[in-house]
Amino acid sequence: MVQILQTRMVENMNMIRNKKSRIAFIVVAVMIPVLASSASAQSTSLKILWDADGIHAGNHADSIHELVATSDLDGGIFLAWVNDHISSNVYFQAVDENGNIPLGLNGKAVCEAMGEQNSVDIISDGSGGAIIAWLDVRGTNSTIYTQRVDSSGDAYWTDQGVRVCHNPAEINEFSMDGDGSGGAYFTWQDKRLGAGSVYAQHVNASGGLSWGTQGAVVNDAPNWQKEPCITANGTNGAWVGYINANSGWNRVYVDYLNMTGGEELSLPLTLGGTDASGLDITADGMNGAAIAFGYNSSGSSTEYDIVVARVNATGLDWMVNACTAVDHQALPFLLAPGDGSVIVSWKDYRDSLMYETKYAQKFTLAGVPSWQANGTRIMESSTVISGSHGCLGGNGTAFFTWSNSFDIFIQQVNASGSLTWGTGGFSILNGTTQNYDPIVVPDTLGGIIIAWRGRISSDFQALVQRVGHGAGNGMDFTWLIYFLIPLGIAIVLGVVGLVLKKRKK
Ligand SMILES: [Ca+2]
Ligand SMILES: [Ca+2]
Ligand SMILES: [Ca+2]
User: Fold this and answer.
1) What sign results for the dihedral spanned by CA atoms 337, 338, 344, 345?
2) Which ligand is nearest to the CA of 89?
């Protein structure tokens, strides 16, 4: 066999001595680096950077029941979790850009007060620390507490947390967003007046309540208000979106509260006769906010569409359909690159009534869709999935993560709406353990860090993985392109040589 190959190579060299063949060889030789560099540019250099199974970042003795995450703005990730104890508590964890965990696997306690703490959330404080909030039943009724910590988990505010609203009425849902200056805005529903109403609070960088001990009123009309969500306009105030149940219809409202908690705008976005649910809201970086929601104009409870609107200081700027595809679309999730554009993704059942997929659309500042009509499909699933979180990447891209059959996947959507990987996504973890609820945050270096809950023996632990451009532990097959193209050309030359030789005979 070796002899045959050697013979053919000699024949090929003889052929190259022929003038025409020599020209062909030069053309091919010039094309090799061109083709190789072009193929290399199209391939992604993103790869898995840490241990292939992920790094264990939380190993709490009572198992981790809820896990949330945010960027540390320094290449790493902050985590917060609630343990699975009968009197659960709140913990903070920091993982640096190299996967080090200086606080140890138990993290640092944020709140170990009596009774249950749950529904934890975490955001950056804008200056290297984090603001954590949770629902707390240390007293009679569930209410919101919050704490600001530095990167070592040391508390800035009152030990065991600052109470956000001192009205005794029970609070079962809240939303928060950082003001970028060490403080945060909160909104919630409580039933102090009977039928639920919506309120808001600003907690300043020192842990003080800016809008009184009871919070500012967003909407306390006698009918029901619910599902509030909030986005900060820096320290100048905040937009609050919520459902206002007027005459039996779930209508979408957006209000603007100024820096003293005064209401400057209250905009009804949808009319009676239609229903809305599943709101999300985000500031767009251009003194406006985008709000997205599931919308039912047909009267059917299983055929919702997705609507996106933009509001600014003068009111409603535009409101458009993001998706009117058949079957059910729900739970939109917004990302704002900061240039006024907005990316909305949602759960979608158009491809299968049994298994959800996820689609996304990008809108310009003027409300013009940039990607495929009715959305670009960014993932598919063949089983029940859990989690569908996303974050911004660099250069107008976005990352999304989900778990499918207990494995973890990511997808990158480029600025033009094209996918870096197929709709199956890029596999982060394909193991024998059960893995749930992945969250993705930017690593501030063009890559991402993913955190999720994984079942290790009988307990759930926090795991993290970094995907980026550095030297990684994952396999990178870019080098194959440089090997395969010259090999392919050599084979073609060999075949051509044989054909020419046969013709001569
Ligand atoms: Ca507790
Ligand atoms: Ca009310
Ligand atoms: Ca639909």
Assistant:
1) positive
2) 1
Any idea what the Cα angle at residue 203 is, between residues 202 and 205, rounded to 5°? 130
Q: Which residues contact 373 (CB under 8 A, 6 or more apart)?
A: none
DSSP letter string, 420-480: SS-TT-EEEE--SS-EEEEEEEE-SSS-EEEEEEEEETTEEEEEEEEEESSS-SS---HHH
Please tell me the distance between residue 246's alpha carbon and the centre of ligand 2 in angstroms. 10
DSSP assignment string, 378-416: EE--SS-EEEEEEEE-STT-EEEEEEETTEEEEEEE-TT
Residue-wise pLDDT tens digits, 389-419? 999 998 889 999 998 888 999 999 999 999 9
What's the distance, CA 104 to chain centroid? Answer: 26
* CA separation for the pair 53, 57 (Å, rounded): 12
First and final C-alpha spacing in the chain: 23
CA of 112 to the centre of ligand 1 (A): 5
Residues 6+ positions from 461 with CB-CB distance below 8 Å: 56, 57, 58, 59, 60, 63, 64, 453, 454, 455
Ligand with an atom nearest the CA of residue 296: 3
Rounded to 10 degrees, the C-alpha dihedral 424/429/430/433 comes to -130
Q: For 129, phi and psi rounded to 5 degrees?
A: -120, -160
> Do the beta carbons of residue 201 and residue 176 sit within 8 Å?
no
Strand partners, 135: 118, 144
> Is residue 17 pLDDT above 60, yes or no?
no
Integer Cα distance of 230 and 236 in angstroms: 13
Over residues 38-55, the mean pLDDT reads 72
Span 264-296, pLDDT tens digits: 999 999 998 889 999 999 999 999 999 999 999
39, 49, 269, 411, 445 from 421: Cα distances, Å: 15, 18, 37, 6, 20
CB 389 within 8 A of CB 398: no
CA of 215 to the centre of ligand 1 (A): 25
CA distance 12 to 64: 65
Per-residue pLDDT of 226-255, as tens digits, reads 999 999 998 899 999 999 998 889 999 999
pTM value is 0.85
Distance 173 CA to ligand 2 centre (A): 15
